[in-house]
Amino acid sequence: MCEAQETMPRPCRPKGACSRCGGRALYVVRDLVMCRPCFLKHIHHRLGRTMNGPLSGSSRPNVTMRPPAQPGAALIALSGGAGSMALLDFLAERNYFGVAGAEYDITRGRVPPVWARAYAVHVAFPDTWATDGLGAKLREAAESRGLTYIEVRAADVYDTALEERVRAQLDGGVVDSANANASDNASRLDALLASVAAASRPTLLAHILDALLGSVAAALPVSHLLLGETATREAQRVIAGTAQGRGWSLPLDLVTLSSQSVARLRGARELSAKEAALYCHARGLESFSWRARRGGGIEALTERFVATLSARHPATVGAITRTASKLQFTGAGNEPRCPLCLRPADPGIAEWKARASLTALPGRQGGEKAQAEQLEPLLCYACATTLKGRKAAELPPYVLAEAAAQRPVSRDEMRAAIADCLL
Ligand SMILES: [Zn+2]
Ligand SMILES: [Zn+2]
């Protein structure tokens, strides 16, 4: 949906008065009519509730509750969309992160920041890095609020030295993607995208985005990765994920996993895309929507489905996210991870696939076939479908490294290992 349309404030009703203070109403959110200050307060309240719950371990969080200081820094993922811009603005307004050189004299009523430092990361995709000055605008938005801005490109998923590069360049103050292999990596990514069906490309890019955010977070001393995914986007992801056969591990995507070294927090998940866009309008923030995906794919279909349905039935998004929040992950938690999406792979699926799938077609040769055969049993059901019919193309190194770590030991290798112990 076009964000420009969403940001148009509703026309003021002739007798429109703010339902909270009686002032001149400008914004209509669900059944509430609000003036600008009340609307901003309302959005801050919702964002604060979502952020403060997981941070303070409280089941009844509120916006006035101040979460305890966190051990590491925060990494804010900026796509340029309204959700991430609104989240960034809220965190800066409420002093959630510290700014280098700033003093926090608590005796004068200043609250110490939740995170001593914060970074912002933007992953540029082939069809967005040409967008007029998007990177420069995001850099300006981040740096003007005291964050360190990091920009990586989707093709950097092929850069095995990405973590060192991010760390090394941080010391120098500049982080960019100008490395010697940039064009090689870009053509590798192009080849990979061309090797799968057109409908699988958005899913593949989403996994690459996930892996890159994980790599950048691992390179920095961060304890939290903050994502500006809105409720609308989450609803679309729930429907698309279910349709792709990702339902088994889906509940894990919707909660804050603090068991991992870097906890992922979705601060804007209680706001709809419209509310986030209205917030950006009210605060005069520029946001960029590049999600209008061309072509098919389950993501594009569900995006259109949710957008058209919620235009007529405003409760659609809420109903989907509320239902999804009740989903429970039934696994034991020690399942092997799928090397592509890095979510637990249902162990029963490999056996089911072995019975249900036809045997491999003859004709593929050499290392490519061996690589595919080694990878195939490790993939989760949804990723196996995404990569189905893949032509020869180099997989990102993280997939191969993960697969190598997971690969079951073959019978021969086992026998060789215990050869000396056999009676
Ligand atoms: Zn008001
Ligand atoms: Zn997977």
TrEMBL record:
Domain of life of the source: Eukaryota
Xref: Pfam families: CTU2 (PF10288)
Keyword terms, alphabetized: Cytoplasm, tRNA processing
Pathway involvement of the protein, from the record: tRNA modification; 5-methoxycarbonylmethyl-2-thiouridine-tRNA biosynthesis
GO cellular component, one term: cytosol
Coiled coil segments of this chain: none
Keyword Zinc among UniProt keywords: no
GO MF annotation, one: tRNA binding
Signal peptide location: none
Subcellular location: Cytoplasm
GO BP term, example: protein urmylation
Protein role: Plays a central role in 2-thiolation of mcm(5)S(2)U at tRNA wobble positions of tRNA(Lys), tRNA(Glu) and tRNA(Gln). May act by forming a heterodimer with NCS6 that ligates sulfur from thiocarboxylated URM1 onto the uridine of tRNAs at wobble position. Prior mcm(5) tRNA modification by the elongator complex is required for 2-thiolation. May also be involved in protein urmylation.
The family this protein is said to belong to: Belongs to the CTU2/NCS2 family.
UniProt-recorded name of the protein: Cytoplasmic tRNA 2-thiolation protein 2
